[in-house]
Amino acid sequence: MIDNIKKILSDIPSHVQLVAVSKTRTVDEIMEVYKRGIMDFGENKVQELLLKETRLPKDIRWHLIGHLQTNKVKNIIPFITLIHSVDSFKLLKEIDYQAKKHGKVIDCLLQVYIAQEETKFGLDYTEVETLLKSEQYKQLRNIRITGLMGMATFTDNINQVRQEFHSLKTFFDLIKLNYFSETQSFSILSMGMSGDYKIAIDEGSNMVRIGTAIFGERIYTTK
Ligand SMILES: *Cc1c(COP(=O)(O)O)cnc(C)c1O
User: Fold this and answer.
1) Of 24, 193, 220, best ligand 1 pocket probe by most atoms within 8 Å of the beta carbon
2) For the whole model, what pTM was predicted?
């Protein structure tokens, strides 16, 4: 695991933020990575995140990277650093509502659908623009959209993956120019996982979400 971390840290340039994806990993495994100076961890299930958050150091920066149900938002607001997976206005509104109760502003990424797969959550390009143009969105004071997140198709076709990342980077630049030109805060492009992070960085990613390449293969246990 230590060698894996060294390799990844040497692969990614300093302007790229590493999020260690710790879903299915134990508290001990996470501690091992934390001790190497990694402070950002990503989880995809709220229940699992809550269990780990109470058991691990308070200076860990937790990222929610999986689909978030509106009824679970309130549980993560007290401590979450960044929500990567905002895929509807309804969810954004609930995050804003709960954040307001806590007197907080929560950083969010809009999850954009770029893969040619049926299963992935996310907004398409038109939906992102519709959201950002809406009066309802403009009224939200307790969320801050700091960028976009996307996942490429799970395929061996490197050209396809590259093209999907390239497309999202182009869209990111357009959105930044047209909707966030007066702020520096729209700056995060979260794309790239264990299998494709090098391509993602080539194509302009500045935040990668890496699990397997750090911790090894995931073993899912069914309960
Ligand atoms: C699991 C997961 C990752 C990490 O995947 P690896 O292939 O293990 O690096 C990244 N992003 C999301 C949204 C995930 O669910």
Assistant:
1) 193
2) 0.96
